[in-house]
Amino acid sequence: MRMAKTIMIADKTYDKLKKMKETQHMSFTQLLESLTTQDERKQRYERILALKGTWKDTKEDREIEKEIKEGWKKWTKKYA
Q1: Could you state, in order of their start, the residue ranges of all structural domains in the chain?
Q2: How far is it, in rounded angstroms, from Cα 64 to Cα 66?
Q3: What is the 3-state secondary structure (H, E, C) of the chain?
Q4: Which of 4, 6, 20, 43 lies in the 20 to 30 Å Cα band around 71?
C-alpha cells in the first residue's frame, strides 16, 4: 500500500516538473523516480571512471570505457 506524501517546492520548480511530467506522459511519482534514478546512474558512472587509472590498458578495458562513454552520451541526450 502506498501512502501519499506532501512536499513543498517553489512554484518555479513545480512548473518545471509539471511541464516535464506532461511532455513525458508520466505521473509525478514516475517522474521523480526517474530523476532520482538518473542521479544514481550518474554517480555509478563517476565511480566506475574513478577506477580507470587502476585498470590495465587492455583491449577489454578500452571496450568497457567505450561502452561507458557511449551510455553516458545517450543518457545526457535523453535527460539533460
Answers
A1: 45-80
A2: 5
A3: CCCCCCCCCCHHHHHHHHHHHHHHCCCHHHHHHHHHHHHHHHHHHHHHHHCHHHCCCCHHHHHHHHHHHHHHHHHHHHHC
A4: 20
pLDDT of residue 44: 73
Contact between 26 and 34 (Cβ < 8 Å): yes
pTM of model > 0.85: no
Which position has the grid cell 541526450? Answer: 77
Cell of 47: 565511480
What sign does the dihedral 59-64-68-70 (CA atoms) show?
A: positive
Looking from the CA of 2 toward its CB, the CA atoms found within 13 Å total: 3
